[in-house]
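Notebook, student rotation project (T.W.).
Task set for the rotation: take a protein with a known small-molecule partner, predict the structure of the complex, and write up what can be learned from the model alone. Partner molecule chosen: pyridoxal-5'-phosphate. Sequence and SMILES entered below by T.W., checked by me.
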Amino acid sequence: MWEDIQVEVEKVDAGNLKTKPSSGDLGFGNYFTDHMFLMTWSKEDGWHDAKICPYQDFKMDPASMVFHYGQAIFEGLKAYRGKGDQLFLFRPADNLERMNESALRMCMPRFPVDKVLKSLKALLYLEKEWVPHADGATLYIRPTMIAAEPALGVRPAAKYHFFVILSPVGAYYAEGCSPTKIFVSDEYVRAVKGGVGKAKTGGNYAASLYMSEIAKKAGYTQVLWLDACEHKYIEEVGTSNIFFKIDDELITPPLEGTILGGITRDSVIKLAKSWGEKVVERKISIDEVIEASNAGRLQEAFGSGTAAVISPVGELFYHEKSYVINKGETGQLSARLFSELQSIQNGQQEDSFKWVVRVG
Ligand SMILES: *Cc1c(COP(=O)(O)O)cnc(C)c1O
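Predicted structure of the complex:
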């Protein structure tokens, strides 16, 4: 059990460390660091065998339940190199709490957030040279949990692996934040009420690929998902939450089980409110957005998520028609949110919300 165990540390020999890629060709999720965090849960022993160890392959039984019934959850957060060459995390406990919520929904074991966060910080400290120095580049952190019991019955597994891997990633916007073109899906849906839309579970992303490929072939970067019942209300854009500024009001769909409660979404709401912006969480239909666009009342639209922080929407494609937003340019509020959040994450801006955690 956690109370009794030590996190073992097994380091890679100095001579066997990987060569770090140059920051110019990082991209997203292509390279992995020298070490990882790993622990196992079983019905008998709870969480055990916690260790920081060399990044390595898993040896798994082909009957492992994750391969068959998809009990798999993950998180995504970043370590930032900022002010004074310090390393910072942004609301990391919120990510781990959310992972525990996903675990509950998927009948997987919960874990002690404080202890995992401590291990994550130790791993990051060991890998600190992997946090890129280039402007905007970060170290992406991927906590994951998978069902490891070899059995074919459809039921919750009795054994799980939890691991954290780290990947240096390039600046999302090489030339600052620039607007994307979005395809509105009126046929395929991402999640249903009562389903698993609010859990960060692998199957949600597998299910989204088909529509994403259609959008890409049509020349669009992301999919805007509508609700599963009426194909009318806006839910999310790709793997980001969505905001619309209409008549000086910032509107985002409410968290009612089908969309992921983004930490960036929550930060945007709090930040915008602190600036005196009017922010509302309410249902918003695609018709309302199109109507506002036609009437010139749709001022801005943007996605929010860890990967891009703020991703302005420059164009919507719906029912064979395209709607340009803010002349296809980044809106004022989008730009302000992007730069403010980025400087908080880098420790450069006063952190009045106490969101930032220093590593080391
Ligand atoms: C991860 C994710 C988000 C964004 O969450 P953040 O905590 O802001 O990174 C939004 N939607 C989906 C579907 C996601 O998987």
